[in-house]
Design goal:
By secondary structure, the protein is an alpha/beta fold. It has 3 domains: 190 residues, HUPs (Rossmann fold, 3-Layer(aba) Sandwich); 110 residues, Glutamyl-tRNA Synthetase, domain 3 (Alpha-Beta Complex); 104 residues, Ribosomal Protein L25, Chain P (Beta Barrel). Helix 7 packs across helix 8. The structure holds one RNA strand.
RNA sequence: UGUCCGAUGGUGUAAUGGUAACACAGCUGGUUUUGGUCCAGCCGUUCAAGGUUCGAGUCCUUGUCGGACAACCA
């Protein structure tokens, strides 16, 4: 895929990270080696924001013949679970990326990190602090006010060494002591004010079991893990920019040669009408606002997958929005464009009526049936054709009939003609209305046998409708999704909680839908365009043979619906 | 009242000191057996002020506005 902003044909401009990488290559850094990593914490499901990082980490490696590791940053056993590891791996593979044999864990380096921490103590660069969290936090100061030094800061190396060992042997309670790096309590960078690098956690780890009673903090594990793995470019999001000086400080103490990972920060993905933080997404799941992490309304990769989004559409979307240092708000409409663009080329066109209205062809012989040929995809010559059963009684969309139609209504209304897609031109002669409710219950038309599709008949009519044969139609449930929030930036209001902006109409379930019979054989991976309506796929969880459930991925662009009605 | 980072059409990005452009959105029109797709066109942009320069979106200074940072989370 090409970048959206191209200086000229065939020449994609580089983003600022690629430019740095090419500079490093040109300068002969790391012997021309390019090595990245994607470092998720296994404490939740991946969302489309992670996809942006994945595309960059794996994409840079691919582009420059390098490697990209998958490394789970599993330094907090109280929050992390194996279940998440499996889902993360599945999502990355689904997007089309592979880490080969380089599946690593920060916990692989617990031994090395412990030794390094011990070494820091020996060099007088770390100490055990016996104070409670509240005091440590108080002494830390604020961004405007320097911190003050802990009374334990200058305790002896021997004492710290002894305490650290005993902390790991389980001798002390959680929270009673921590190991702190001795950096600078007056630094303007909060992260360098003697950061906590090890804490006591009497908690089994999913990989190391009960080997450890102390666990490194993320800040003490992340940069070093990159170093241990030979990562050349540590790509992460903007909020870690202020952590970089601390990572550099640790690497300064650790490194032996010239090599050190280069951290480059880029903007995270923000989408209109949605929230992206794991915490908020989890809240939606736990409060039942959505039906799980893979609810098709969620921006999680599992949700988007279930909704019908394709890996290609997500990768193209990510490519279109780019990587910068500006905290942007991306229009969710661009994501929808990306999936339409992909599906338009590949999805089989089928007939499906969501809100059925009975249509009777009064001059079509009772009991007669025929099979009409229709193309599977006008955008793909090789997609072939199939047969559609046709008869006297059909269903059309309720929206496609109006008793009193405005001039620009190109569909069915009394006295008007339309074409039934791949079938005949019909004329509306009459209709039946429920006298109590005013609801139209039946439309009566005549068909013109000379206008059969493909017969060469050249008469033109303004409108073409989709339809299904009443006798042959299969029943299905169809779920229509709308954006989860009614506000462009639901978590952008200081005085209001994001849940106040939940869209009560984000899910609409239609249970009486009529589909063409071929859809009885639909498979979960199949993508369809329901003609004139949108793109749909089988729901991977709830659909069963004989009880089909389809999800609408995205509606077709609709220039009629825009303001004409 | 700190440090760091940023600011280009409605949105997102490009232009790497030399004609401000691409995509989406919006609006016209054409084609069409999908009011889709496709095609043609229109709309509209460098935060402000100074400076350097033959020439500044780009470099410098100051200001304005926005974001990040004060978890024994990552």
């Amino acid at each position: 895929m090409t970048n959206n902003a191209q200086p000229e044909e065939g020449k994609r401009s580089l983003n600022f990270i690629e430019q740095f990488v090419e500079e490093d290559l040109a300068n002969g850094k790391n012997d021309g080696r390019i090595h990245t990593r994607f470092p998720p914490e296994p404490n939740g499901y991946l969302h489309i924001g992670h996809a942006k990082a994945i595309c960059l980490d794996f994409g840079i490696a691919e582009r420059y013949n390098g490697k990209c590791n998958l490394r789970f940053d599993d330094t907090n056993p109280s929050k992390e679970e194996v279940e998440y590891i499996d889902s993360i791996k599945a999502d990355i593979h689904w997007l089309g990326f592979d880490w080969e044999d380089r599946e690593f864990y920060a916990s692989d380096y617990f031994g090395k990190l412990y030794d390094f921490a011990t070494e820091l103590i020996k060099r007088g660069l770390a100490y055990i602090d016996d104070q409670p969290a509240s005091l440590i936090s108080e002494q830390k100061g604020t961004p405007n006010k320097p911190g003050i030094e802990s009374p334990y800061r200058n305790r002896s190396v021997e004492e710290s060494l002894d305490l650290f060992r005993r902390m790991n042997e389980g001798e002390f309670e959680e929270g009673s002591r921590v190991l702190r790096a001795k950096v600078d309590m007056t630094s303007s960078n909060m992260h360098k004010r003697d950061p906590i690098i090890y804490r006591i956690m009497k908690c089994a780890h999913h990989r190391t079991g009960d080997t450890w009673k102390v666990y490194p903090m993320y800040d003490f594990a992340h940069g070093q893990s990159d170093y241990f793995e030979g990562v050349t470019h540590s790509l992460c999001t903007l909020e870690f920019e202020v952590h970089r000086p601390l990572y550099d400080w640790f690497i300064d103490q650790l490194k032996e040669g010239d090599y050190r990972p280069r951290q480059i920060e880029f903007n995270r993905l923000n989408l209109t009408y949605t929230v992206m933080s794991k915490r908020k997404l989890l809240q939606l799941v736990q409060t039942g606002q959505v039906l799980g992490w893979d609810d098709p309304r969620m921006p999680s990769l599992s949700g988007l997958r279930r909704r019908g989004y394709t890996p290609a559409s997500i990768r193209n979307f990510v490519d279109m929005i780019g990587y910068t240092k500006y905290e942007a708000m991306n229009d969710v409409g661009l994501l929808e464009f990306a999936v339409r663009e992909d599906l338009n080329k590949t999805a089989t066109r089928v007939m499906g009526v969501l809100r059925p209205l009975k249509l009777i062809l009064t001059n079509y012989p009772e009991g007669q049936e025929e099979q009409l040929e229709t193309v599977n995809n006008p955008e793909d010559e090789n997609a072939g054709t199939r047969l559609l059963p046709f008869g006297r009684e059909l269903y059309i969309e309720q929206d496609d009939f109006m008793e009193d139609a405005p001039k620009k209504f190109f569909r069915l209304s009394p006295g008007n003609e339309v074409r039934l897609k791949s079938a005949y031109i019909i004329k509306c002669e009459d209709f039946v209305k429920d006298p109590k409710t005013g609801e139209i219950t039946e439309v009566h038309c005549t068909y013109d046998p000379l206008t059969k599709s493909g017969s060469g008949e050249s008469r033109k009519v303004k409108g073409t409708l989709h339809w299904v044969s009443a006798k042959h139609a299969i029943d299905a449930e169809v779920r229509l999704y709308d954006r989860l929030f009614v506000d462009e930036e639901p978590d952008g209001h200081k005085d209001k909680d994001f849940t106040e902006f939940l869209n009560p109409e984000s899910l609409e379930r239609l249970s009486n839908c009529k589909l063409e019979p071929s859809l009885a054989n639909a498979k979960v991976e199949d993508r369809f365009q329901f003609t004139r309506l949108g793109y749909f796929c089988l729901d991977s969880k709830d659909s069963k043979p004989g009880n089909l459930v389809f999800n609408r991925t995205v509606p077709l662009k609709d220039s009629w619906g825009k303001g004409n009605r």
